[in-house]
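Reviewer 2 asked us to include a model.

Predict the structure of this chain.
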Amino acid sequence: MRVHATQTRPLHPAQQEEENRVRQAANSTLLRSFTLKRKLLFIILAVVTAASLPMSAISQAHDSPSSSDQSDITYKWKAYGGYGYTSLNQVNQSRSGLQGIDLSITRDFGKYFGITADGAGYSAPYATPVVANTTLSPTVDMVLFGPEFHVVVWEKVSGFAHVLIGGEHTGGTNQTPNISFAGGYGGGAEYTLTSRWGVRVSGDDIEQSFSVTGNSAALGNSAHKTRNPRASIGVTYSF
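Predicted model (C-alpha cells):
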C-alpha cells in the first residue's frame, strides 16, 4: 500500500499579504488591549492610594490628640513647693522671723473651687539672735486645711484666695503649751509656664494662741493671741 505525502500548496502573493495584514491587526489589537488593561490597573491603584491617605490621616488625628486638645486637658490635682518665711510674734522679744519650706496639695472640684492641705516648717533664722538677749532657737511648724477659690485673671496669670484652719507648734522656746489651734486667710498669684508647671507667690495672715515666754503653771499658762504674717514663693505641678 502506498502512502502519498500531503503537500502544502503555496499561497498566492495576494492571499499571503492579506494573511499578514490579519495577523498584524490581531497583534495590534492584543497589544492595545494589554496596554489599556495596564493603564486601567494603574489608575485603580492610584485612586485606591489617594483615597486611603485621607482616611489614614483622619485615623491618626483621631487616635493622637492634637496640641490644642492637650492644652485643654483639665488636671484635678496641683502640688506646690517653695521657700517660706514667717514672723515670730508668739515669742517674746522676737527680733526677726524664720525661714523654711511651704508645701501644699490642692484637689480641684470644678473650674473655681478646690480643697487645700498645707504644711510648712520654719527653723532657719532670718537674723541672729532670733530672740533678744537669749540663745533660743525657735522653730515653727503648721498644718492647715481649707477651701480655695481660684480664677484666671489674664491669659497665663491666675489668682487664688483661701481660708485655712488647723494647728501650729512652736519649739525651742520652753513655751507651755507649745501647740495651738491656728487659722487664717490669704491668697496669691500664679503664672502658668506649661500645661503642668507654674510659678506661684502667696501670702497669709495666720492667727494662733500661745503662752508668753517664761509663763508657768503658777501664772496659769495664760495664752495670748497673736498673728503671724507669712509669705512663700515656689513652683506648682498639676496632674
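The chain has two domains: 13-64, 70-238. The CA atoms of residues 94 and 131 lie 4 Å apart. We have added this to the supplementary material.
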